[in-house]
Amino acid sequence: MTAGDDTAALGAAGVVFSSLKGEAGAALLARGARKRFPAGASIYHRGDAGGSMLIIERGVAEISVTSMAGRKSVLAHAAAGEILGEIALLDGGARSADVMALTEVEGVSLTRSVVMTFLTEHPEAMAAMIAQLAARARNASEMFETAAMTDAGARLAVALLRLAGRWGDDRPAPGGRPLTQGELGEYAGLSRENVNRRLRAWSRLGVVSLTDGHVSILDPESLRDIAECGDAGS
């Protein structure tokens, strides 16, 4: 890894290892291997041994689980500066979820031995990793709460608002990559047909707009009302 690569990766890793000084972070990344995954490629498989983690330098990854019946549920998306595979790396267990490159993903892969040695020497980095684990746990709790909603319209509204809030836009577009209606369904726990029907109804009411099948939020207040009170069309 070149000095320029170190600088780029350190910038991307700022969310997780923001407390590290330049030399310490560079020393860690220098012991890693650069990885590139094309859009749609698998990064990790649920159940595989977790001997490494990935610091995302560029791109967006999708984290999901698939039920025994074959139903896929998207749990979260991770972008530049976040880490993937940290749970299995820390506890030595199997991967707890599938991870796929939603867009092309580049990052630095670090083995368990390298990371554990580094965390022992730099406890401030452990605190940063624990903070991300807590954020992931909070997100999972919110996802389970949403999944328990019986009103499908409210569930979809919550999903749209959460995605828009996460990515700072009026569109559910992780890393600038708009989600298809099928992908929205996987995130909200609904069928693509159910998502399509509700989005078309909301489009007629001016709550959202649909362009080439992609969604933009026009009236977030109305969407919040649906999230809180349910959809009369449910």
Question: Summarize this, please?
Answer:
The chain contains nine helices and ten strands. By secondary structure, the chain is of the alpha+beta class. A hairpin with a 5-residue loop joins strand 4 (61-66) and strand 5 (72-78).
Measured by DSSP, the beta-strand proportion falls in: 15-25%
Q: Any idea what the CATH superfamily of the largest domain is called?
A: Jelly Rolls
Tell me the span between the first and last alpha carbons.
Answer: 54 Å
Q: Overall 3D geometry?
A: elongated
Provide the spatial order of strands within the biggest beta sheet: 1-8-3-6
The CATH top-level class label of the largest domain: Mainly Beta
Helix content: 40-55%
What is the fold named in CATH at topology level of the largest domain? Jelly Rolls
Mean pLDDT: 83
Structural class: alpha+beta
Reported CATH architecture of the largest domain: Sandwich
Query: Which regions contain 5 or more consecutive residues with pLDDT less than 50?
Result: 1-15
Structural write-up:
With 234 residues, the chain is of the alpha+beta class. The protein has 2 domains: 3-140, Jelly Rolls (Sandwich), CATH 2.60.120; 149-229, Winged helix-like DNA-binding domain superfamily/Winged helix DNA-binding domain (Arc Repressor Mutant, subunit A, Orthogonal Bundle). Helix content is 46%, strand content 21%. The chain contains 9 helices and 10 strands. The chain has helices at residues 3-12, 22-30, 86-91, 112-121, 123-147, 152-167, 181-188, 192-204, 220-229, and strands spanning 33-37, 42-44, 52-58, 61-66, 72-78, 83-84, 98-101, 105-111, 208-211, 214-217. The protein has a 4-stranded antiparallel beta sheet with strand order 1-8-3-6. Strands 2-7-4-5 form a 4-stranded antiparallel beta sheet. A hairpin with a 5-residue loop joins β4 and β5. α7 crosses α8 (192-204). The longest helix is centred in the middle third of the chain and has 25 residues, at 123-147.
